[in-house]
Specification:
Length: 225
C-alpha cells in the first residue's frame, strides 16, 4: 500500500446496496478506510461484514457534515495521519481519482485539494444539474473570494494540520459552504484537480435534489451576513 499516511473517510447513510463494492475498490489502493455509519436503518452491518475497515457509528442520523466531523476527530488522533480524503459511499466517485488526490496532497503544500468535475468532465454531469452547480460555484466565488469551479464536490483531501484549523459546526450539507468560508477567512491554501463522476440511477435517486441548490445559496449568504 502506497498511502499508509492517508485516511479515506466515507460518510454512509442507508447505502447497503452499493457500499460493499465501493469499499472493496477503495481497499485495493488504501489501507486506512474509515466509514461513519450515520444512523443507517438498513442492513449496514451485513453489507460491511468482514472488510478491513474502521466503523464509527452514530446512533441516529445527524447529517453528512456531522459524519465528516466525527471522522475528522478520529483521524486527527492518529500520529501517523497526514491527510484525509472524503469519498461518497454511493459509488459515484472514482477510486482512480482518490489515488490522484492522495498523490497530490502528499506532494503539494496546499492544505485542501478540491476535486472538480468541471475541469475535464463537465459533460458527464446531467445538463440541468451542471447549470445549477456552475451558478453555485460562480456565486460562491463572488461571495467568498475562493475561486472554485466545483464548490460542492464530496471528493476532497485535507491535511490533518488544516483540519485542526477548521471550525465546522453545521451537520448537514451546509458544512460545504461553511468549509469554504473557513478557507476564505483563515486564508487556507487550496487548489483544484480534475475528477470524474459516475451518475447512476441509484446515485441520482440518493443525491441532492436540484432545488437543494437554492438552499445551498441561502446557507452561503447567511454565513456571510
Amino acid at each position: 500500500m502506497k498511502f499508509k499516511n492517508i485516511y479515506i473517510l466515507v460518510p454512509a447513510f442507508n447505502e447497503s446496496k452499493v457500499i460493499r463494492k465501493t469499499l472493496e475498490e477503495l481497499l485495493l489502493e488504501f489501507c486506512n478506510v474509515v466509514v461513519v455509519n450515520d444512523g443507517s436503518t438498513d442492513n449496514f452491518n451485513e453489507s460491511t461484514e468482514g472488510l478491513n475497515i474502521t466503523v464509527l457509528n452514530h446512533e441516529i442520523n445527524l447529517g453528512v457534515g456531522a459524519a465528516v466531523q466525527t471522522g475528522f476527530e478520529y483521524v486527527c488522533k492518529k500520529p501517523s495521519a497526514h491527510a484525509v480524503i472524503t469519498f461518497d459511499a454511493d459509488g459515484q466517485h472514482s477510486v482512480h481519482d482518490a489515488v490522484s488526490i492522495a498523490e497530490a496532497i502528499n506532494k503539494s503544500s496546499e492544505g485542501i485539494i478540491f476535486g472538480s468535475r468541471f475541469i475535464e468532465h463537465r459533460n458527464n454531469i446531467p445538463f440541468i444539474k451542471r447549470i445549477v452547480l456552475m451558478i453555485i460555484a460562480k456565486i460562491t466565488t463572488c461571495v467568498t473570494g475562493v475561486n472554485l469551479t466545483d464548490a460542492h464536490n464530496g471528493l476532497k483531501a485535507y491535511t490533518v494540520n488544516t483540519i485542526k484549523e477548521l471550525d465546522l459546526k453545521f451537520s448537514g450539507y451546509s458544512y460545504e459552504s461553511e468549509l469554504i468560508k473557513e478557507v476564505s477567512l483563515k486564508n487556507i491554501s487550496y487548489k483544484e484537480i480534475s475528477t470524474d463522476v459516475k451518475y447512476t440511477n441509484y446515485s441520482i435517486s440518493k443525491g441532492q435534489k436540484l432545488s437543494d441548490g437554492l438552499l445551498i445559496l441561502e446557507d452561503l449568504l447567511k454565513l456571510w451576513k
